[in-house]
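Summary for the steering committee. One of the milestones for this cycle was to obtain a three-dimensional model of the protein with nicotinamide-adenine-dinucleotide bound, which we needed before selecting residues for the alanine scan. The sequence and ligand used are listed below.
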Amino acid sequence: MNIAIIGTGYVGLVSGTCFAEMGNQVTCVDIDEDKVDMLRSGKLPIYEPDLEHYFARNRKEERLSFTTDYEDAVLDAEVIFLALPTPPGEDGSADLSYVLQAAGTIADLLVEQDDPGYRIIVNKSTVPVGTADRVSETMADRGLTTGEHYDVVSNPEFLREGAAVDDFMKPDRVVIGTSSEKAANKMTRLYEPFVRQGNPILVVDERSAEMIKYTANSILATRISFMNEIANLCERVGADVDKVRLGISKDHRIGRHFLYAGIGFGGSCFPKDVQALHRTGRQHGYDFQILDSVLSVNDQQRELMVHRLDEYFDGDLEGKKIAMWGLAFKPNTDDVREAPSHVIIEGLLERGAEVTAFDPEAIETTKVNFGDSISYAEDMYAPLENADALVICTEWHEFRRPDLARVHDTLGTPVVFDGRNLYDPSRMAEMGFEYFSIGRPHVAPQEDAEAIKAALSENGQA
Ligand SMILES: NC(=O)c1ccc[n+]([C@@H]2O[C@H](COP(=O)([O-])OP(=O)(O)OC[C@H]3O[C@@H](n4cnc5c(N)ncnc54)[C@H](O)[C@@H]3O)[C@@H](O)[C@H]2O)c1
């Protein structure tokens, strides 16, 4: 099939590459000339596991190309995907200007043709209920006829950054929102190779498809905020949130995913999608109260580490050297949009602290926000040099089992604020660390130098 992808970001690039991998002819469009130049020269603008391999192969086999010109992509395309940003507007609702403008540009191109043919316009962006209708109106306003020249399909994307290729190649389900049988059949054919293991392709109406995406993200965000509140209560009553999590996750009604307490959710989706769904409620005269709480609990949780550090240093962070491990909003991505680490950095800088950070992938993306107001390290042990404390913000694999003896010896003071509950509090205390985590009892550090030495040699190198 001939496919155009409008918007070549995380979703557009991964979708385009995976469609090409299945033998389709894909042209990706972006208005960012630098990005398109980079892609054309064979370089990827984002980090995503496995993407490089598929990207290189499909470019080489000439099934995947990139352009800044809509015309190059749209005129031959049977299916046109819109994978454009939908950032929160001032009132929290999704800003649809990118999507509607692109739809307008496509329609303008089509009406210029003697025979505009028939194409499917697919909303892959996360968009509020009613957007398929608005895209359709945009096309119709230019004189195109639905059913004859185009159909609009809502096809929300559920890929997770950090596992995007795998998620796209083996989706739990594919949702196709359309009232057109012709469009539904074509979309089903396009997606069949991705669900050979039997996962469903659900064909629903446009509005239900749009609601499915927001509902999924809002439930996941709710679970995170809920567990963060449980963690905060655990700290106050002397319980351990990780044990509570294990205890509930074996209940099949609850399951085990999205129950980890931490420093709040980030990324380009959860915060904006929860806000947008809340806003949709308002626009329809409904006060979706839980979502308000999900967001305010998350804001509070992302500030938690800063308050904890402030308290530990008696309100005087001025000049304190803080080492940070992890900048990406989650592991295996370089995405730092809405990352809790950035909220923490802001709080630390406001209080006069000096931050040196390490992340395996997200240093360049962080530089865009913080430039040289913080320092960056090329290896994970470098920021610890004479630091007053280490703060852990992202659970990259390499932070799970570091050489803790080296961490202990390199830090100026062995103080660790762990926003991801990576280590055992009792073992950390035995090794002489002052160790703070989320929702678990604090254990006073061992003070006897000989005992610390023994514990470090026993536990230090895991
Ligand atoms: N990132 C995710 O994990 C994820 C997952 C599921 C759904 N989504 C949704 O998918 C949509 C896209 O998200 P993303 O993370 O890929 O965004 P992104 O910011 O990474 O990419 C968007 C791309 O669109 C380009 N663009 C902007 N205006 C354009 C125009 N008029 N014409 C052509 N290109 C244009 C930008 O230059 C950018 O490259 C959003 O609605 C998002 O909520 C994202």
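Key point for the committee: The pocket of nicotinamide-adenine-dinucleotide is lined by residues 6-12, 29-32, 35, 83-86, 98, 101-102, 125-126, 157, 159, 161, 268-269 (CB under 6 Å).
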